[in-house]
Amino acid sequence: MTGPVTSKPLIEALKGETMEVPPVWLMRQAGRYLPEYRELRARARDFLDFCYTPELAVKATLQPVRRFAMDGAIIFSDILVVADALGQTVGFVDGKGPVLEPLDGAAGVGRLSLQGLPERLAPVYAAIAGVRGELPPATALIGFCGAPWTLATYMVEGGSSRDFARTKAWAYGEPEGFRVLIDLLVEALAAHLIAQVKAGAEVLQIFDSWAGVLPDTAFWEWSIKPIRAIVERVNASCPGVPVIGFPKGAGILYEPFARETGIDAVSIDTAVPCDWAARALQTTITVQGNLDPVMLVTGGTALEDATTAICARLHRGPFVFNLGHGVLPQTPPDNVQRLVDCIRGRVP
Ligand code: 1CP
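^ thats the input. predicted complex w/ coproporphyrinogen I below
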């Protein structure tokens, strides 16, 4: 091939092309496992401040891209910035994770507002524009948000949860009240995704990290339907921008999720068998996934064998290499290099 790079492998794969070498990026590819990230993180007052300082967010986004020549750059931000922008009190406690003032039912939802959102999230959009200016020509910039259900769990529980009991009790016991929150989140998240594209994002991913805890009828109601509403809005405003959906833990419900939400690609978690994904999903949609993040901690021939096996099962159709969930903080960066080399056929 000659001439300048005119296309980006990640975008081609997401649009349905079967690639000779699968494009690769990793969920949570920026983060504590990188020494240069820890150095940058120490410069910000707290994690939200880090996300809202474009100069720092641009640098964090580009760190793994420069180190590993990833095919995708995911903007450094968090799913919880939208809760913050809606007016909820959000904090991040080192070693504990996110802490929010829990929403107390309808009254709490009534205090949230879409009004201040574009202004509060302006630094995220500034960071996206900044990254676009510095991105290698073959790398695609990925914007993202949490799905309404997943974001709602953090907003209602006040942080991470084991059983999601408060959120489920509300969704099961008073669905019309819970719907007011979900509908508000559909509006907020669609606006946030569209603004990210206007700022320079070329691909979008919707993280439904806790979709897998829902029984099937609730999964349709609170995962599939709200995501479909978001995808419809995004497609209308940003035609041609591919959207990836990640309903972690959805099991056999991956099939209706892929079919009914209108997404262009589906990210499969570690428990989804690649052979099944090739048959049930990849015939109609691009598949992304699904190396166990612990393999990336393990390294060695186990990592290479697992990587080769995933590629062998999914290379016949449109495929993007990724993990089944995010990079773990204890991951040796050299193992990430080894993974990328293995995918690109550079391991002897
Ligand atoms: O520096 C630090 O210690 C903060 C750790 C951290 C980081 C690096 C948090 C707090 N968020 C992030 C960045 C982040 N979060 C990114 C961009 C970086 C990248 O991918 O390279 C993205 C895409 C997210 C998305 C995110 N945040 C999700 C969805 C993906 C997933 O992991 O399932 C979720 C659920 C969150 C909430 C959140 N924010 C931070 C933490 C530790 C968590 C998870 C809490 C929990 O496990 O419940």
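The beta strands are 72-74, 90-93, 97-100, 140-146, 203-208, 243-247, 265-267, 286-291, 319-323.
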